[in-house]
Amino acid sequence: MGEKELYAIGEIPPLGYVPKKMHAYVIHPEHHGPPLQSMKPEVVDVPDIGPDEVLVQVVTAGVNFNGVWASLGQPASPTRFHKHPFHIAGSDAAGVIWKLGSAAKSATYPWKVGDEVLIHCGMTCGQCPYCNGGDPMLCREQKIWGYESPYGSFAQFTKVQVQQLLPKPANLTWEESGCYMLVHATAWRMLYGHPPHTLQPEMNVLVWGGSGGLGSMATQIVRAAGANAIAVVSNEERGKWCLDLGAKAYINRKNFNCWGQLPPVSDQAAYGAYVKEVRKFGAAIWEITGKGVDPDIVFEHPGAQTFPVSCFVANRGGMVVFCAGTTGFNLSFDASYVWMRQKRIQGSHFATLYQADAANKAIMDGRVKPAMSEVFEWERIPEAHDRMMNNVHPSGNMALMVQAPRRGLKSLADIGN
Length: 417
Ligand SMILES: NC(=O)c1ccc[n+]([C@@H]2O[C@H](COP(=O)([O-])OP(=O)(O)OC[C@H]3O[C@@H](n4cnc5c(N)ncnc54)[C@H](OP(=O)(O)O)[C@@H]3O)[C@@H](O)[C@H]2O)c1
Ligand SMILES: [Zn+2]
Prior knowledge:
Layout: E1 21-26, H1 35-38, E2 40-45, E3 53-62, H2 65-72, H3 78-82, E4 93-100, E5 116-119, E6 122-123, E7 143-144, E8 157-161, E9 165-167, H4 174-177, H5 181-192, E10 204-207, H6 213-224, E11 228-233, H7 236-245, E12 249-252, H8 268-289, E13 297-300, H9 307-313, E14 319-322, H10 335-340, E15 344-347, H11 353-364, E16 372-376, H12 381-389, E17 397-401
Zinc ion (ZN) is lined by residues 124-125, 127-128, 130-131, 139, 141.
């Protein structure tokens, strides 16, 4: 096979041969807007790698909300974080190691060119006290690959740190493999990473957006621990998806009217009406858990619209753990419920390699499934993001074909090398 400067999408170069150019979806800072407007197919140079970096041929990728934020340039253009003139989004991928830097070594996983891998999106410095004995997510250099770094997975090649690699589960197809890691590891840390509020058998966990990316994984993690997931959704079809994933029950949030900013506590009429409505929502939880039994953990990410309710319904001594504010960052809550009932409000962000590895093992042994929904071809990557932005995407995790020539394949040999 001849060695070329540029390969077509789905055409695999000889193993280890790095072409000069690659196809990529590129976001330019002057074109921020909805994904259909801002994510444009272009040919760019394949990035160089440093001694501790790895070049990965991207076989499949996943859709995450940060691709929407990167397109919109909200809350800021990713190019402001990484100072590169353009941005390639994509924070999930399955692929093949194509080139290893001279210092890119892992004692746990002795990687070599040709290995089939997943990528987790947590970049760290590797040198600081947090990275060596502490919590690497507290590293000052911590970044999300494909959001705060310029070369994400919506391209034929991406570059990552060696500690971002995990083995691809051999029993999964390429598209299943590429779609789950970001949300799965995030959910894993939210539920296991904040002791002593860690997931235990019999606990009740309220999962907002139960059929979404995070929610689909959280629901399964809760179930695998022998605990009860109570999923919140916006329609019955999504509720059924959650039941299939092992939720104990679901609640349709459209049947309640207690969303948005907390009314002023001093406005007795408005506040009283609000609390009455929140109690109705609480009663719907009690119908599932038993009278007076509140959720031990509230798995929160919608933000402004739901946060006051999350803080209200969490159990005494329980935890509201949140990793996003999709509907707004101005979170409000009635402080008296939080201090008098001694609740914990805990921010959480992605995961460490340790947590991503534990989460991946749960996939490998079948405790948790990738919850893959729809598979999109390369040409439809912006459309998949547009659907997510408008909350009309299918339940679970969407997968994206990059170099995978067709669906259902599992190995490097399958994709033609
Ligand atoms: N910090 C981190 O490390 C991290 C990691 C992953 C994701 N995130 C963030 O977490 C958020 C969710 O990500 P995702 O991948 O799970 O997205 P997703 O697949 O779109 O799921 C989000 C779910 O939220 C629900 N939702 C939408 N509007 C809502 C509202 N007004 N009230 C209550 N629920 C609402 C939707 O379910 P219903 O409409 O059916 O209720 C939807 O399924 C995003 O902002 C993302 O950027 C952060
Ligand atoms: Zn560090």
